[in-house]
Amino acid sequence: MSGPAPSPIPLEEAWARLLESVRPLPAETLPVADALGRHLAAPLTAAATRPAADLSAMDGYALSGPGPWALAGESRCGAPFGGTLSAGQAVRISTGAAMPAGADRVLVQEEALRNGDRLSLAAEPPEAGANVRRRGIDFERGDRLLPAGSRLGARQVALALSAGIARVAVHHAPRVAILDCGDELVDGSVPASNGAMLAAMAAGLPCTVRRIGPVADDAGALGAALAACADCDLVLTSGGASVGDHDLVRPALEAWGARIAFWRVAIRPGKPLLVARREDTLVLGLPGNPVSAFVTGFLFALPALRAMLGAPDPLPRAVPVPAGADLPPGGARGEFTRAVLREGRADPIRQRDSSLLAQLARADALIWHPPHCAGTKGGTDVPVYRLENGAIA
Ligand SMILES: Nc1nc2c(c(=O)[nH]1)N[C@H]1C(S)=C(S)[C@@H](COP(=O)(O)OP(=O)(O)OC[C@H]3O[C@@H](n4cnc5c(N)ncnc54)[C@H](O)[C@@H]3O)O[C@H]1N2
Ligand code: MOO
């Protein structure tokens, strides 16, 4: 790609082209507890039935037939009652303990009158099946529990372990390199905060991160830094992505043999975003302005990582939230306005300069204002991306 800078492409097109450029990484098999945050490479199928037997849902007495009853023993978790009850017999039972053969209901202990080994009712008799969890009501062995692509969070880890699954096939964790680019970062006159910020954003996902640089605005230095990233799945650069004389990321990528998928997106902040691929390495050239680096990291780098991890739906999701104030009509670029969520509204932050970290740090959402949209009255629902969790539930 050479000559004048191309026209920025719409956000939706940029997202589509990004997702075309990313494939889930190959699968590996891991112990379930080590697979936290990974996405399944194959469906999860129950290897056991849960509950494995009929269980009591309450502490009380398992009953056989009408009362009064004679106590015949106890069923505890891990120590079930071995015999079979006949009508007029009961056993003391704990929550989660196996129902004895011959019993069909549980009387909760608060509704029982006990006199030695004799048991009678203090209230209405329980109906047949009362307070019993039937075998297999959660799932049966062989049931399809989760489809391929599901993310293993805390609840899914618990489900897999409960279903008797010790190891799972998941997509590999991406290897990420993060490069800070700019002479002012090398000489220390500007702290290289973008790299640390992007590494912190990536840390919410399973991946390994290598920080490189700061790298000088110099074709040789950039080329050497990129060459050190050839084994990575994702390379994030920040800075040097625009059109100035010292914005060398694009030519350095081309010299390295990368193919540019697109450069420049019609969003503010974040217009200079560049996406390229070299063999199995995806490169996202993020703009240097800190808010631009954050917004493009949020909108493109986190989704790219999620897609590599095998997420079927890796893009952030907007939710409708009433705008806390009037918003002006949209321009040629769609605008991601930093906002503070307060009392169910998204209060826009007025300052738009993409270098302002103090405003970014107090924001907890982005309001999306599409290109050329009409002005919006305060109180009207607008699409809002929550910043926590990368806007993924
Ligand atoms: N003539 C034009 N100029 C600019 C355009 C344009 O279209 N035409 N686009 C503007 C937009 S929009 C953005 S955003 C910036 C992005 O520029 P670069 O990606 O080339 O970034 P730099 O020029 O290298 O740096 C910009 C700014 O950010 C600071 N920076 C850079 N890296 C870091 C880092 N790792 N940590 C903290 N801060 C960093 C750098 O010191 C600069 O202040 O271009 C506009 N210009
Ligand atoms: O797009 Mo730049 O990111 O506006 O400042």
UniProtKB/TrEMBL annotation:
Catalysed reactions listed for this entry: adenylyl-molybdopterin + molybdate = Mo-molybdopterin + AMP + H(+)
Stretches assigned to the MoaB/Mog domain: 177-307
Domain of life assignment: Bacteria
A Pfam family annotated for this UniProt entry: MoeA_C
PROSITE patterns: MOCF_BIOSYNTHESIS_2
Record's keyword terms, sorted: Magnesium, Metal-binding, Molybdenum, Molybdenum cofactor biosynthesis, Transferase
Pathway annotation from the record: Cofactor biosynthesis; molybdopterin biosynthesis
Swiss-Prot/TrEMBL cofactor(s): Mg(2+)
Keyword Metal-binding: yes
Function, in words: Catalyzes the insertion of molybdate into adenylated molybdopterin with the concomitant release of AMP.
Family: Belongs to the MoeA family.
Protein name: Molybdopterin molybdenumtransferase
